[in-house]
Amino acid sequence: MVGRTPAAVLLTTLCSAFDGGRWYSVGEQWDDGCTRAICVGTDRVERLSCPGQRYDPSRPDCRLVEGNSSAAFPLCCDSVVCDTPLDVCRDSAGASRAVDSVWTERGCVRSRCEIAEGGVAVVRRWRCQPPPSADCRLVVPNPADGADYPYCCPTYLCPGRCYSPVLDRWFFEGDRWAEGGCFESFCESTGTVTQTRCPFVSARRPGCRVVAGDPVAKYPGCCRRVECQPGPYDG
């Protein structure tokens, strides 16, 4: 037949919808309940469903709103509605906190605003660590009010163990570690921490110069050092 497309060719570019037996062209979309269907190829249909809505129940300014069951996709989907943007946290006092901000709440609780699954900002919280062993001795039970975490936590003295408030971690006797500042910490058997700082360096010899350390490197890579060019004065 002239001027008509054979049925076999026509079917390769159509999709069948099972809710009425209609045929759809490639790229055409339709709704099947609260689902968006898309014809992508030879009788191949992709379906888009409502995303799972998750939010932090500790945020009183957020609530889950049911979608309109009689509306088209995606208005039929449930949604999270917040009085403040989803990428902003609320602290215990109701103040707004930006993502990645860290603060200390009452009761010496470290809080951090993070993005959780679904793109919603949530508050992650840490409390003071308990002593690592039963032979620890409580030295400072109630630190001064207003101090930031972990400096507001009780202080313990533990034989063979040392605590780093910067890393919020316990170390064993003989351990060495680097933390904020250009120095190395060492855990003594008494439970105390000694620190080794960068030595003083100067370039007094001809052909020598003082080179700054790497500001983001750990000890001793962050320390200043002396570099000398070889010359007749060597040897």
TrEMBL record:
GO terms for cellular component: extracellular region
Any coiled-coil regions, as ranges: none
Subcellular location: Secreted
Keywords: Secreted, Signal
InterPro entries reported for this sequence: SVWC_dom (IPR029277)
The keyword Secreted appears for this protein: yes
Name of protein: Single domain-containing protein
